Amino acid sequence: MNNKKIALIDGDNFFASCEILMNPSLKNKPVCVLSNNDGCIIARSKEAKQIGVRMGMPYFMAKKEFGNYNIVYISADFSLYHDISIRMMNLLSKYSDIVDIYSIDEAFIDLTNLDKYNRISYINLITHIRETILKEIGISVSIGLSSSKTLAKIASHKAKNSCGVYIINNENIHKELYKLDLEDIWGVGKNIARTLRSFGIFHAHEILNKDDEFFKYELGKKGLELKYELQGQAIIPLISKEEYPKSIQRTRAFPNFSSNKDYIMTELELHLHNVCKKLREKNQVTSIISVMLRTKDFKVFVQEEKLDKATNSEIVLKKYIRKLFNLLFNQNIIYRSSGILTYSLEKNEKNQLSFFQDNLNIKENKLSRTIDELENKFGNGIIALGQSGIKTVQNEHKRQMRFRPF
Ligand SMILES: [Mg+2]
Question: How far is the CA of 303 from the centre of ligand 1 (A)?
């Protein structure tokens, strides 16, 4: 028997939760999100569900049927949901190398052996992930954990009716699948369910005992895979759609040509911050850093350095930047732009395995993460490392910020 531990993270009432996050006055109110052109209801808050508003219900019908309730109807803002989804998926990548994004608010992640590495039980681990998403993103999720994707999906449904987390262990599979409707199994649609019923299989647990030949013959390879998945074998692989860059660069022209050393250094620090933030988002580290200055007459000067140890800490990298900048800068030259480039990027394996432990307690790492968290809440560029700690970013940088009032 395989010992995979696959978690499915699923946003609760996701679109409605995103709207409530952006407008906290909607909290505890029945909220419905409407499809394009306000045709029908595509998401409901917990309170709207309790009233009885149905998924997919046309807007005009809901208005008529639930006219006595103060339901708040909101037109869908998919770019907002996409934005929050990216934040959620990026956060998940801190826990797993593989984030298999299934939909805008659902992803499978592989947590195998993270209990040992972090000396934590799986139930505490998924509870921690759930609480972290709630704290850092502001969205409530349900997490199911089991040894196959199909079982993880069933566990996540069960999580919605318990305390937000649920584990299906291999020893309890039969009990967990007992009397579960066929249509509640991931990948079982009306046609497969009809075929199974015609052979006297009405519930998920009955699939477990039927012999392999039956599935192969009646439903083909997919049918057999379904049985194995329900038995707890990880047949359907996790596929990470996440792309990991090989290099990251940030360059920008100055609003006015400049020979001001402090000003150019501040620009480089901002680039460095954005580069490091990207590295941390992707859980990557760099081992080559380079500084670029472009002169008024388009000559390019570059200095680079190979680091002793790969990092994504801007405090560490800032020392290199300063050194490289001092080698490059000539006060008699007028510059038009600057940039930071990092190469030779690799996964931050250490951080992957021990997100609870020592390395996160290192001061510099903690500070960087705090900045990331603040930026996730208040928008990019809200703070950056200055020459003497933290300072607010200057006005000229504001044009590249995207403010989200989190
Ligand atoms: Mg969901």
Answer: 48
Profile the chain (406 residues) by mean pLDDT over runs of 10 residues. 88 96 95 88 95 94 93 91 90 88 93 89 96 95 98 96 94 95 92 93 94 91 93 91 78 93 95 90 87 92 90 91 96 94 79 48 58 65 46 35 32
Q: pTM of the prediction?
A: 0.64
**d(Cα 285, Cα 282) in Å, to the nearest integer?**
9
Ligand 1 centre and the CA of 27: distance in Å? 18
Q: How many helices (H) and strands (E) does the chain have?
A: 16, 15
Distance 160 CA to ligand 1 centre (A): 10
Q: 142: CA distance to ligand 1 center in Å?
A: 8
d(CA 5, CA 13): 25
| Torsion sign, CA atoms 133, 134, 139, 140 | positive
Write down all domains in the chain, each with its CATH number in brackets.
Answer: 173-230 (1.10.150.20), 248-400 (3.30.1490.100)
- List, as one string, the DSSP characters of 62-98: HHHHTTTS-PEEEE--HHHHHHHHHHHHHHHTTT-S-
CA 385 to ligand 1 centroid distance, Å: 37
